Every structure is written in C-alpha cells, then in structure tokens.
Amino acid sequence: MRRTTSALACALLWALSACSPRAPESANQGDPWIRGRLAALPETKNNSAPRKVSSGLFPVFAGKPDDAWVYAPASAAKKANPPLLLLLHGAGGSGSRFITRFTDLADQTGIILVAPKSAGVTWDAMNGPIGVDVEKIHKVLSMTSDSYGIDPARVSVAGFSDGATYALALGRLNGTLFRNIVAFSPGILIPVAPRGSPPIFISHGTLDTILPIDITSRRFVPELKRE
C-alpha cells in the first residue's frame, strides 16, 4: 500500500505543477466556519527569469523550527513562479516528518513544499471550530509566497488521516485559492459551505483498520460528487 500511495503521490505532484481553471466563487456569509476563509495570496509578478532559490529544508519561522517547515528543491530555481503544495500531517504527527515523504517528488517537479505543525496533537477542526491552525496556515502561506515568488494560481493542499480531513474542509472553504485538494485516508467529511469547486483526489487503503474505507471515503466520494 505504501508503494501504491507513493506512485499516486508522484502522479499528483506532476499534475499539480500545471494550471487549472478557477470556479466561480459562492461565498456564504452564514457559514459557521467563516474563520476558515483564507485571504487570497498576493499576485506575484511574473518574472521573465527564475529568481535565486536557496534549495533545501528550512524552518519557516526563525527561532521556531517546530512550527512549520519549507522545502525548496533545486529544480524550483528553474521556474520563475513555482507552484506550492501545503502538506497537513496526521494526528500526533509533525510537519518536519511529513514533509520528508514528498521531497524526492518535489525534486522531480520543482514544487515548493510547506508543512506546518498543528497547535495541538491534531488540527483544531477535529475538536471544534476552525481557528488557531488556520491563522498559522495563513502566515505560512503568505511568508512562503513572498520568499519564493509562488504562482498564486498553482497552490494546492494535501493531507493524511486527520490532515486529510482538514485538507478537505479547508480546501473546500477556500476553493478559489487551492487549485487541487488531495486527501490520503480521510476520516471525516466536515460539512462546510464550499467556495469554488477545485478537483479533489482521495486515496484510501482497502485494508485500513484505523479508518475503514467503507465508513469513510466510500461514503465521502458520493457526497462530494453531489456537492
């Protein structure tokens, strides 16, 4: 199953490096998850030549290495405005560990990776309304976008387990910001008022005993198609 997930992730990262159309925005002011709305990233000036990128793995916030990590592959230096993939770890995990699963694939595609750490053991939406974690994610995206000249039309979100649940919620709430949503083994489909309709990819192991596929993803997919 790990080899299959790696192959799927590789194909996804290649797809993420291209552009996709934006769906019309349909904001709902009565949305109880309004705090989950992320501000649009500033438009990055399209450069005719790639900017200098310091390749490697770095903490996003100086002096706070546990808060978030960014990985800039050397191949990103060939892109004037590289794409960005936001990675959300599972419960009990960390951004520093989760991001290392994708670095080889980022090297192949020139995608900038960024992985924040949840404020608690897991993401805030697992225990109540979206709040503190989305505030950190906004800061992480803004700082990374400014540092690497990210193309705001090519920002995607991916997560595993609780991180996949969060990616589905945050991604649908901000569908005019995230061009793709990727969920590896999500456990819950949180009801939110979507904004936009980005493509969604879900993978789930059929032998998963922690989050069985029959009561999770196989129920979510028809609901998402109707949505």
How would you describe this protein?
Helix content is 29%, strand content 15%. It is globular and about 45 Å long. The chain contains six helices and seven strands. It is an alpha/beta fold and 227 residues long. The protein has a seven-stranded mixed beta sheet with strand order 1-2-4-3-5-6-7, with helices on both faces.
Number of helices: 6
Strand content: 5-15%
| Largest sheet entry | 7 strands, mixed
Rg, Cα atoms, Å:
16 Å
Average predicted confidence as pLDDT = 84
Which residue ranges are poorly predicted, with pLDDT under 50 across at least 5 consecutive positions?
1-5, 17-30
Structural key phrases:
7-stranded mixed beta sheet; 7 strands; globular; disordered N terminus; alpha/beta; 227 residues
Tell me briefly what this model is.
The chain is an alpha/beta fold and 227 residues long.
Helix-strand layout with pairing:
Blueprint: H1 2-16, E1 56-59, E2 68-72, E3 84-88, H2 95-98, H3 103-109, E4 112-116, H4 132-148, E5 155-160, H5 162-173, E6 181-184, E7 200-203, H6 217-226
Parallel strand pairs: 3-4, 3-5, 5-6, 6-7
Antiparallel strand pairs: 1-2, 2-4
